[in-house]
Amino acid sequence: MPSVSVIIPTHNRRDWVREAIASVAAQTCRDFELIVVDDGSDDGTGVLVDEFSPVCPRLRYVYQANRGVSVARNAGVTLSSGPYLAFLDSDDVWQPSKLARQLAFFEAHPQASICQTEEIWLRRSVRVNPHAKHRKTGGDIFARSLERCLVSPSAVMLRRALFDRVGGFDPQLPACEDYDLWLRIGATEPIHLLDTALVIKRGGHPDQLSRRFWGMDRFRVRSLQKLLDSGVLSPEQRRLTVAVLHKKCTVLARGARKRGRTGAAYLRLAAHYADGASADAEQESR
Q1: Distance (Å, rounded) from C-alpha 283 to C-alpha 280?
Q2: Phi, psi of 242 (to 5 degrees)
Q3: What Cα–Cα distance (Å) separates residue 272 from each residue in 145, 235, 244, 246, 268?
């Protein structure tokens, strides 16, 4: 059994995924398996993946009808066997010591269940510096993660037991599925940070999910709603979550009105959870 299972989901990114797989094959740690889940490509991705079999003996290629990145990642996990999981988006690449550094972290911190690394951002091949609001921190990042996703799938390694416990990526979310999973994990687990850039994150190209859907906060609101209904939040986490839900619903309602709709559904949703929070606070004060 390999120590770590690497999952790459991909859809019609033949040229990008070539570099992603090459960066996995170049890892200094050799104790891994690589599973490439082809989510319905028609660009010859399968032929490209076969080229890496001689240099990546534990490479497995799986094809499925296009069902989205969450289903693809979950399918890769189901087929894998390592006690640790690492995900790599098909448009990102790793530095050669990425797996070795994260495995060493877990060996030195046996109580840790998940860690991520710093990353270098490239936008249209030009290096850019993240804004302060995107800056990563380690430990309890739940409150900061309510506003936006602060964990990149390509930067994470986590124990399989944790992934199974929280239920993996939500296949009902066509986007923001990473925001959703890391929030569910961050509600109960510290997310540790290795302060070294071991991922090169490449953006600005037209097939990114963030460009495919308008109003990405629609999916974040759905995630916050699930979180509030889950029963796992502390009173303070719930208060913070309700506040961010209200803020996002207000923005979405305003956007809906600009498109000739009422946006009333978002306002009703925010009011519903705000009323619940008030009731909870009143109950606690008794």
Answers
A1: 5
A2: -60, -40
A3: 22, 17, 14, 10, 6
| SS3 per residue for 210-221 | HHHCCCCHHHHH
Phi-psi group of 2: left, alpha or beta (phi > 0 → left; psi -120 to 50 → alpha; rest → beta): beta
Q: Give the pairing of strands 84-87 and 59-64.
A: unpaired
Q: Are 178 and 213 in contact (CB under 8 A)?
A: no
Counting every residue written for the chain, the total comes to: 286
17 CB-near residues (< 8 Å, 6+ apart): 8, 10, 36, 45, 48, 49, 90
| Structure tokens given for 65 | 């009808």
Structure tokens at 114: 């998940």
In this predicted model, what pLDDT tens digit does every residue of 58-83 receive, in sequence order?
999 999 999 999 999 999 999 999 99
Bigger pLDDT: 125 vs 8: 8
Distance CA 186, CA 115 (A): 11
Calpha distance 109→182 (Å, rounded): 20
By C-alpha distance, which of 263, 224, 216, 268 is closest to 244? 224
Contact 41, 10 (CB under 8 A): yes
Percent above pLDDT 70 for the chain: 94
CA angle 136, 142, 144 (to 5 degrees): 50
* Cβ neighbours, 10 Å, residue 27: 21
Say whether 172 sits in a helix, a strand or coil: coil
The Cα–Cα gap between 180 and 69 comes to 13
CB atoms under 10 Å from CB of 22, counted, come to 15
Q: Tell me the per-residue pLDDT of 1-35, one tens digit each, with 9 for 90 and over.
A: 999 999 999 999 999 999 999 999 999 999 999 99
